[in-house]
Design goal:
Strand order of the largest sheet: 1-3-2-4-6-5
Order of helices and strands: HEEHHEHEHHEEHH
CATH class: Alpha Beta
Number of strands: 6
Mean pLDDT: 90
CATH superfamily: Uracil-DNA glycosylase-like domain
Low-confidence stretches: 188-203
CATH topology: Uracil-DNA Glycosylase, subunit E
Number of domains: 1
Radius of gyration: 16 Å
Structural class: alpha/beta
Helix content: 40-55%
Length: about 200
């Protein structure tokens, strides 16, 4: 498998789905290639498409703030990516076929980075990586084990939802970010994944 920088160069030429036709740039992801915490969102917006960086608008500012205030990590100490690397037209939701076309890129990034904790932001990232059809409101508030390496997944709202939804959503997000911090601790007991038919970890 290529290194992360080599994978990014390959991704810049991706034409696996129609989103490639309208993009300004491929928003591959950024951060520490050896990060213990990997944040996965939905897809780039207008400003992300322009700059080629994930989460650089208002949602990104809130993400950076929560990472620092609740996890104690600066942005550059984590790795940030999205389900799709190209901006959907008009900032619409990414389509299932678009997410599926981009899935191998995300899986390759995860394989190279090997994070201990995944923090998924919103429905699309959570459903993809948790392997569930449940909405974010039903699955957040818990932590789950995914994959064969015991990776811990912490689902939470997308920062845009907190910007729209006010204090209650933001408070729940803060609690989820604390769960991510606790999951980074070596002594954290491994929880379980809901679609494996196993018991969920009580909090």
């Amino acid at each position: 498998m290529p290194k992360l920088a080599e994978l990014e160069e390959q991704a810049k030429a991706c034409v696996r789905c129609p989103l490639s036709e309208g993009r300004t740039t491929v928003v591959f992801g950024e951060g520490d290639p050896a990060a213990d915490l990997m944040v996965v969102g939905e897809g780039p917006g207008r400003e992300e498409d322009r700059q080629g960086r994930p989460f650089v608008g208002r949602s990104g500012q809130l993400l950076d703030r929560l990472l620092w205030e609740e996890v104690g990590l600066p942005r550059q100490a984590v790795y940030i990516a999205n389900c799709v690397m190209c901006r959907p037209p008009g900032n619409r939701d990414p389509l299932p076929a678009e997410i599926e076309a981009c899935r191998p890129w995300l899986e390759s990034k995860m394989e190279l980075i090997q994070p201990r904790v995944l923090l998924t932001l919103g429905n699309f990232a959570t459903r993809l990586l948790l392997g569930t059809n449940e909405g974010i409101r039903r699955v957040r508030g818990r932590v789950y084990q995914v994959g064969s390496r015991g990776t811990v997944l912490v689902p939470t709202y997308h920062p845009a939802a907190a910007l729209r939804g006010g204090g209650e959503v933001l408070a729940e997000m803060r609690a989820d970010f604390v769960r991510a911090k606790e999951s980074l601790a070596p002594q954290q007991a491994l929880p379980v994944r809901p679609d494996a038919g196993a018991k969920r970890l009580p909090l």
